[in-house]
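Q: Here's a chain of 390 amino acids. Please give me its 3D structure as tokens.
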Amino acid sequence: MNLSYAINVSDLRRMAASRLPKVVFDYLDGGAEDEVTLNANCRSFETLNFRPRSAVAFDTCDLRTQVLGFDLSFPAILAPIGYSRMMHRDGEVAAAGAAGAAGTAYILSTISGHRLEDVKAASSGPVWFQLYLVGGREASEAALARAQAAGYSALVVTVDTAVAGMRERDYRNGMKQLMGRNPFLKVPHLWQMLSRPGWLTSYLLDGGLRPLPNVVIPGKGQMTLQDVGSALARAAVTWEDFRWIREVWKGPIVVKGVQIGDDARRAVDMGAAAVIVSNHGGRQLDSVAPSLRILPEVVTAVNGQIEVLMDGGVRRGGDIVKALCLGARAVLLGRAYAYGMAAAGRPGATRAIEILRADMERTMRLLGCSSVQQLNSSYIEAAAIAPVVA
């Protein structure tokens, strides 16, 4: 696959769609219910206009920043994406390697197809571990102990998954049947796999649908991917759980899935080092506000006490700049890098990062701003920066 033809994230999306079976692509690409929030996440950036400084020139454009004390080459971190190994056999290892080589951080999902030790070893940069409580506390404690021993530098606790969202594309494509154990129920949906022989060959050579190596249930072994949905419904994280998590994890904790200012203040009270304004990429509760609209409310709520990150809808380097103007320290990239990773493994993820970095530098130069440290609300229209609520 010739990645040189990809000049934006939409090109990588088309490449991923041409390689993946429909059921796998739609799992990556889709959202909950009518996908109102999924689409609003992207549209929200389109409604925010820049206010550039003209007749400004400079030799270098500094995209560097710090997040949780870690030096990053530009303010974008690769977000956790569950079971990336289904999209490409190198999955999480490829993404972590691309992030490290680019000088930024990678966040590994609990629902990973690769051992957390192997993922950490693949990256030369900081790697964080994202926690779901699937498998129970004992299994989670074992995973956290392994992550700390392997050198993971922060813990990201996701708080917006009381149950899995209703992702209707998955139901229509027969995701449950294809992942199930009954071979007869798979038959009506197998055409999707057979239509992508390259992906299918790689998938079979990789051993097919593997269990989750980082969710080891005492007395039962590794959890299967088929059991994750029901396990999530029994493993919702509450604020009470943070006392136990704080005792187990010796390092910074980031709360992911904050969508109102009150929860951001609660995270501050619980000792979080940062929050991530996130609606899970529109994959959980549909018809919530896009992350970009909530960002000013959360920034106001934490009042500089902790760092604020944001994800949802970032597809251009200009989107990153807009989020920083509204007070984010950095953004998380999800689908934006996953399309590249799904299309071509590590080179694809690397190309996605290159595209967004070049986009961002070009935007900064046209904006007349030489450093991300100088970005503020004066570079965007004032009407767009009021918090959603007072």
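Q: Can you summarize the key feature?
A: The chain has one domain: 3-382.
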